Amino acid sequence: MSISESIRNRRSIGKVKQDAIPRESIERILEAGIWAPNHRLTEPWKFFVLEGNGRNKLAEALASVAGNGEVTEESLSSARKKVERAPLIIAVAVEPVDNSKIIELEEYGAVFAAIQNMLLEIHELGLGAVWRSGEPCYHELMGKAFDLSAKGKMLGFIYIGVPENNDQQSKRTPFAEKTVWITE
User: Fold this and answer.
1) Exposed, middle or buried: residue 158 (CB in 10 Å: 0-12, 13-18, 19+)?
2) pLDDT tens digit string along 98-149?
3) Tens digit of pLDDT for each residue in 17-75?
4) 47-51 long-range contacts, CB within 8 A, separation 24+
5) Which has the closest alpha carbon to 2: 75, 10, 149?
6) Helix, strand, coil percentages in the chain from 3-state DSSP, rounded to 5
7) Would you call 112 exposed, middle or buried from its count of C-beta atoms within 10 A (0-12, 13-18, 19+)?
């Protein structure tokens, strides 16, 4: 499949089977991430591969965020249901370099590009994925749970699995409606 086909056909797929994902496939996904463009080759990404009981690390962090530092059995149970939606989750964080010549926002952009590369590789492998984020993802307690630096920030959780069905359709606003051509 061409890159153009991948870009146009990749969809967020939340309903996946619990089949294990081969290590070789996971490594291909991670490899795709590290080839994202990044200013001055800072490579500001950090990946956490969560499988099996390893997904409980994310469940505990989600429960902690929900309870503002306190974990209840109810919040932990709810969080476990969320992380059990897929057999594999790759948590992706940014660790901006400490260099006054590097614009921190560009570090975030590089990691978002890494996530897009990973999503395209996942699609190429015939797997399904959904990129989840939101307030709990960006919360200070999430960063602490994953031992990120003071400047580090979790940017997303990629839930990955074998799709239950693969007939997702989507539409986009034509680019002409979102584009301004400046020629003079």
Assistant:
1) buried
2) 999 999 999 999 999 999 999 999 999 999 999 999 999 999 999 999 999 9
3) 999 999 999 999 999 999 999 999 999 999 999 999 999 999 999 999 999 999 999 99
4) 47/90, 47/91, 47/92, 47/93, 48/90, 48/91, 48/92, 48/93, 48/146, 49/88, 49/90, 50/83, 50/88, 50/89, 50/90, 50/91, 51/20, 51/21, 51/87, 51/88, 51/89
5) 10
6) 45, 15, 40
7) middle
Residue with tokens 């089977």: 17
Q: Residue 142 is encoded by which pair of tokens?
A: 């999430």
Q: Helices 104-124 and 23-34: crossing angle, nearest 10°?
A: 140
How high is the pLDDT of residue 166?
67
Tokens of 109: 């952009």
